[in-house]
Amino acid sequence: MVRTFLAIDLPPAQRKALEAARRSLERAGGDVRWVPAANVHLTLKFLGGVPAGGLPRVLEAAAAACRGRAPFRLSVEGLGVFPGWHRPRVLWAGVGGDIPALAALHAAIESELAAAGFPAEERPFRPHLTLGRVRSLRGWAGVRDAMAASRLATGPFTVERVVAYESRIGPRGAAYRPLGDFPLPG
To answer: Which domains are assigned to the chain?
Structure first.
């Protein structure tokens, strides 16, 4: 089985701004497992374990979903948590910009993958960039206050492609390997 997901990568300027925000939150304390800056991405679809024989269908579906779509602009805006502030599990950075284009791309990916035999996501799409996972509430107040004080906002960037990744989980966390790259040709 190949642990697979489809994502939008961030340009260096946005990645650098997120790394600075993450460092600021890290200094606030808290029991959080932080995502390395190199691994931060905007997930469009997490497929989980895909049999190796099913990978061509994933790649074909991703290519079909991207075909004919124009590039669009997004930005990174604000910080938040899932599921809520009283019981946080995931710390994230928000996404702004052309959300309708992002939602349409996500819907096309879901549709193409469903047609290829992969189950559709039942939860609504909530675009975000995962920065960390809360392990316990120890020190949470400091992190929460640092998040509230943050004014994270990056300049816009252009989304020009979707990348399919394999995710390998090891003792040092996840390592990602690109499986395919799908341009938004316009």
So the answer is: 2-183 (3.90.1140.10)
